[in-house]
Amino acid sequence: MTVAVNHLWSVAAAKARFSELMEKAANEGPQTVTRNGRPTAVVVSVEEWERRTTRKGTFADFLLNSPLRGSGIDLTRDDQPPRDIDL
Fold it and tell me: Each residue's pLDDT tens digit in the chain (87 positions)?
């Protein structure tokens, strides 16, 4: 994982300068918080979070735009009844 050095915050620095951390996340992009030198969390602006988590289209749209559409793949269901199992 590559992270820009000026966007790295230790937990202690993030706690001590939380307002600055939030401001930088809003204005400069995601900020990475590290614990013991390892990336642990990322602080992002609300706008960035909504952009990344907002669904774009429906499941049907996804399927219609699939690269597998028209590929000839057989997705028909088997009409055989399920097998009997002993529980």
Answer: 555 556 999 999 999 999 999 999 999 999 999 999 999 999 999 999 999 998 888 988 988 888 888 888 887 888 888 889 988
How many independent structural domains does the chain possess? 1
Domain boundaries, position 58 = 5-64
- How far apart, in whole angstroms, are the C-alpha atoms of residue 26 and residue 46? 8
**Nearest alpha-carbon partner for 21 in 10, 49, 48:** 10
Residue 27 CA to residue 43 CA, distance in Å, equals 12
Nearest to 14, CA basis, from 35, 2, 29: 35
Residue 46 domain-assigned (yes or no): yes
- CATH number of the domain at 54, please: 3.40.1620.10
78 in a structural domain:
no
pTM of the model: 0.61
Q: How many CB atoms lie within 10 A of CB 35?
A: 12
